[in-house]
Amino acid sequence: MIVRPQQHWLRLIFVWHGSVLSKIFTRLFLNFLLSIAVVLTLPWYSSLGFKLTVAPFSILGVAIAIFLGFRNNACYSRYVEARQLWGQLMIASRSLFREVKNTLPDDPHLGEFVRLQIAFAHCLRMTLRRQPQAERLSHYLSAEHLRAAMDSQSPANRILLIMGEWLAVHRREGQLSDILFHSLNNRLNDMSVVLAGCERIANTPVPFAYTLILHRTVYLFCIMLPFALVGDLHYMTPFISVLVSYTFIALDALAEELEEPFGIENNDLPLDAICNAMEIDLLQMNDESEIPARLLPDRRYQLT
Amino acid sequence: MIVRPQQHWLRLIFVWHGSVLSKIFTRLFLNFLLSIAVVLTLPWYSSLGFKLTVAPFSILGVAIAIFLGFRNNACYSRYVEARQLWGQLMIASRSLFREVKNTLPDDPHLGEFVRLQIAFAHCLRMTLRRQPQAERLSHYLSAEHLRAAMDSQSPANRILLIMGEWLAVHRREGQLSDILFHSLNNRLNDMSVVLAGCERIANTPVPFAYTLILHRTVYLFCIMLPFALVGDLHYMTPFISVLVSYTFIALDALAEELEEPFGIENNDLPLDAICNAMEIDLLQMNDESEIPARLLPDRRYQLT
Amino acid sequence: MIVRPQQHWLRLIFVWHGSVLSKIFTRLFLNFLLSIAVVLTLPWYSSLGFKLTVAPFSILGVAIAIFLGFRNNACYSRYVEARQLWGQLMIASRSLFREVKNTLPDDPHLGEFVRLQIAFAHCLRMTLRRQPQAERLSHYLSAEHLRAAMDSQSPANRILLIMGEWLAVHRREGQLSDILFHSLNNRLNDMSVVLAGCERIANTPVPFAYTLILHRTVYLFCIMLPFALVGDLHYMTPFISVLVSYTFIALDALAEELEEPFGIENNDLPLDAICNAMEIDLLQMNDESEIPARLLPDRRYQLT
Amino acid sequence: MIVRPQQHWLRLIFVWHGSVLSKIFTRLFLNFLLSIAVVLTLPWYSSLGFKLTVAPFSILGVAIAIFLGFRNNACYSRYVEARQLWGQLMIASRSLFREVKNTLPDDPHLGEFVRLQIAFAHCLRMTLRRQPQAERLSHYLSAEHLRAAMDSQSPANRILLIMGEWLAVHRREGQLSDILFHSLNNRLNDMSVVLAGCERIANTPVPFAYTLILHRTVYLFCIMLPFALVGDLHYMTPFISVLVSYTFIALDALAEELEEPFGIENNDLPLDAICNAMEIDLLQMNDESEIPARLLPDRRYQLT
Amino acid sequence: MIVRPQQHWLRLIFVWHGSVLSKIFTRLFLNFLLSIAVVLTLPWYSSLGFKLTVAPFSILGVAIAIFLGFRNNACYSRYVEARQLWGQLMIASRSLFREVKNTLPDDPHLGEFVRLQIAFAHCLRMTLRRQPQAERLSHYLSAEHLRAAMDSQSPANRILLIMGEWLAVHRREGQLSDILFHSLNNRLNDMSVVLAGCERIANTPVPFAYTLILHRTVYLFCIMLPFALVGDLHYMTPFISVLVSYTFIALDALAEELEEPFGIENNDLPLDAICNAMEIDLLQMNDESEIPARLLPDRRYQLT
């Protein structure tokens, strides 16, 4: 994610890093070259009776803009929902540990429990990004728990089961009444909601045909646009054509980035930073002394 | 559902499988033929004083695009809600079994309970797809339960009742306190929410008149468009006419597919894969050894 | 509600029943006649300096389309919410009876309770449709309860109170612990949510001024459209004018139908069928033998 | 609120009362006069080289329509949310009293409690409409409670506190177990949600700059429109200009009314009627004999 | 936040303070100067064959308006959600204290607890606005609690932990049953939801690329617009160009303000006033005598 301080409106126009411009530069450049070719060959192909006007492109442009707006909305909703799920994980983690600590203030194994919670967050993050997990999780989990988690199709779900067992042991030993066990269990269920929600977003893309239809119509529109503009604009065609193409192609490309919010591209969620903040919070709540440093945006305002 | 890896923007333009293009090809081809006929017969029917211009089609095009955008939204919401309901089933299933296993760790009938849960998921899937269920459910249910379920108007609801009875027996035998019985019951209620939500989506289509009005206006628009374009574009008419028609008809056809998200078309939900993942998860949580293989997309990236 | 099987795209264009076409046919026909008059009298009134062009209608058409889209959205939301409320009633009814049956399996009065639940659904349906209730409810309620319900401003609410009393008696007799009484009471509260939600939709229309403003602008737009089109299209004016008018007027008329989802028009909710399904479900859950037949769409695919 | 029976589409065009037309008539009339002046002075100012065309107004018109649609949406959401909050108050009130009556059926002070509930509704209504409350509330509250409420910044919140104390006394006396006290308390919390939600809507307007920007652009657009239209339409300019202005100004004015849903204008919520219905319901649930009459719309279909 | 009384529509057009006009005046003025330069140099650059027409700008204008509408929606949603979170804090604070006071009416430390609640609100406010907190919080917290909060990464979360401990002590001493402790704990969890929700909004901006793409296209559009208009409008170009630019740039600037709702700009949330109201409410509920004065809008209708 890009975390820039607010800037003067004029400077924003010249920002390169963090825009999708780097990604679509080739396509815009090809559009520019095509437009020049269209201008130069105009006399030849108009002599063949080949002619386009702006009017049908106006109809098409509005329709594509509306449908692109719809797809943007759908992709942005996924991004927002993904962020909300991680916010809910923060809420559930803090609430769960607060309740545990208030209810069992003198339990000698609180450090173990807090590490199970931290492991859950990192495990979910690494699952979503398809990163290898064993090494990192070994910092937080006992060997036995680590093996159980790694053997499972869904390691994060297994960690939840282990946390539930931790609480159930306290219930069986009489330290937790049924009411409080039920209450703590609800926090685990909240985490289960986050887990399955993230899995859902990661596994179910926006219907592929949307992407396809819009991709095609946007590119065909941009390819044919110079032919339509050249009659009116002549030498100005390449500039206007690139400006219009930029508007449409940039939003198409951004929607594609937002569709998969768990990646590590410029406009994806900073899961590393969220996990880091969660880890600091939980360790501080347990009054531990060794707290990791806080992750900050790098020189290019990038936070992963 | 189509699960494609992200691809180069240029290759996407030429993808055939998974688009709705295969479905609407005939219509676009008819539109192309009509456009050619319009170009060829232009001298004849203009001599009759028959004339169309682009301007009124511009008004109509914008209006149809806005209303089509609205219908797309309505159909996509159904798709998203259906997916969320299955996500909630995943959540409720895992949470229910985690609570049961943590509360009754040594119960000898956990295997029976986990199979009731798996049967519920498969039963719901097969009900929504109107597939015969008895054979599949017999893998998970005892003969008596299977008969009770099959005799019911809503077999999935009957399975819920059986699960509730399983828990109630433990309560009556004193193994579950009222608090924990209440908590587990809430998980069953969550499943009831999923069940009735899916039934609602399956039984209540988007109001038929929406489909009808848009269908008609889209097709009339596409049929008359070549007459309007031919004055300006002449020989280019068939190409632009097909491009505009593609944009409108493809989105109309996609909305139709998304409207019924439980089918087995390209853009429908992969219920088989979801049930399979749920089955693996639950069996692993019960530490069973015979776990079914995971379903993966086929050669054409299709996951049912 | 119209429940049609999916059909070939070509056949859909000619469907008459279930569209709003029957409702707006007169208006479209008047528009057609007006357009013909406009074409015929063109020489006369243009000699008076009376002239309209398409350009301002283009601005107006877009604005009306956007606002109509907004109103459609508002009305469709009411329809969707109404359907969801009835879905929640299904959920609450099944969950309530499942909990009651699991908790009090041998109670001799379960049949009475299940009939109270069924009476609630029918009573709500008939209240929303302003139908006389006493006769139907007498099948399910004792004379005393029926009188109490009929004497109340909100009979459905009174039935809820009676159900609460049924449960409270069991609590006072020691058959229900406070926890389970609390849990069952929450299901009654869910039904109360449905009741008040439906009352809200029935009593609070979309602000009347929306209806009025859009009605007026849509009709004025359609009346003046032929004058604007005739300059360009001449003899084609009536056809294009009716096509544009159809798009706008049909959506306006549909929004009006959806605004009141509890009626018995083509695009309203099939409350009869929902109540029927609920009744069958509940009676089967109580293992009763006399189950009413399932309601199916009639010959015209109509389900009330 | 206007509660009209459904009417013939033709009659709706001529409705005066309940539309915003009465409110914006002056503005439309000024627009009409301006348009006439523009037509008459056209020869003079065109000789000065002053000229406008429709094309830039087309861009502006679409943009304003989109932004106006957005603002309408925001204001309508406030209206809908306000109505939903009052619906939730209905739900919480009925559920709370049902639970109280079922749990404490023979308590001699139920009449006092039901009046506290009624007082809460009226107090909230009068707070939102900034009406004096003491006189009305004295019908329902004891002198001591009335004074406590009136001395508070938020009288409705104080009434909630008194209701909580009423329940707490019963708990301390052993008539309510902790579980049931907790359950009833949750209903009070639901009322607290309604209270703070209504305060939020009343105190936090849609950002003032939205209102301002749209106001300005709408009026500037309508003022300059006749200059742009006169070239094409000549004598027809005033009529078309007023029609376009009506569409934009009427929706702007309606959004303004909906923004403050708690007022007593034509399109505001009928809080009097809602409180009246709630009062009747609660008194009937307590089987009281003196029930106030039901409020109905007046001759002009107006319900306050 | 600007809190203006409703005003005559004519006066609104001339309001300066509270609009974003002060912020974008320079940009509009530059646009005006550029337009004049375009008009004056028209003969020179048209002789070079440099020519623009309105048609492509019409396509671009609609597309930008749609995408700007989308961004406005996204930013406004953040504003609304932020306001709702603070409303929920109000709800949770009142409910928590009501329950505490009703359950422990004679506890001598209620004053301490109410100050912990007030400290939480102020702490959250100052965290979101990145203001120094120690001085203000010292009015409400004991020295020990203050130090604990200040040493934490998230002081507000630490205050929640302290409140939980306050309740847990009462539970351990037998004054709170597990049920009531559980109920009060849920209110703390509600506060945790508000805390993490606000952190989420503050830390996760709308994807930077949206801001960038729209910024660029809006400004490029406004810069090139005069060249396109001058052909048709000549001397009127600067006026129309500024009007169109105002519509687009003002909404772009407003979206930027709303994106960060916790600031102290004209259109940001009045957190000071909300905290103040919460403080008064809680102190009055505890029947304290020293109540701070209520914050009111200043002379310019500004409430921070």
Could you walk me through the main structural features you see in this protein, from its secondary elements to its overall organization?
The structure is a homopentamer of 304-residue chains. Chain A has helices spanning 9-12, 21-46, 54-103, 110-128, 134-137, 143-150, 155-172, 178-203, 208-233, 237-259, 271-285. Chain A is mainly α. Chain A contains eleven helices and no strands. Chains in contact: A-B, A-E, B-C, C-D, D-E. Chains A, B, C, D, E: Keywords: Cell membrane, Ion transport, Membrane, Transmembrane, Transmembrane helix, Transport. Chains A, B, C, D, E: The chain crosses the membrane at residues 28-46, 52-70, 208-229. Chains A, B, C, D, E: It is found in: Cell membrane. Chains A, B, C, D, E: Its main location: membrane.
- Name the overall outline of chain A: elongated
**Contiguous helical run count of chain A:** 11
Kindly state the percentage of residues in helix of chain A: over 70%
Rg on CA atoms of chain A, Å: 26 Å
Q: Mean of residue pLDDT of chain A?
A: 92
What does the oligomeric state look like here? Answer: homopentamer
> What's the count of strands of chain A?
0
Distance between the termini of chain A: 6 Å
What are the segments of chain A in which pLDDT stays under 50 over at least 5 consecutive residues? none
Largest sheet of chain A: none
Order of H and E elements of chain A:
HHHHHHHHHHH
> Could you tell me which chain pair has the largest interface and how many residues each side has?
A-B, 65 and 72 residues
Could you tell me the strand content of chain A as a percent range? under 5%
Structural class of chain A: mainly alpha
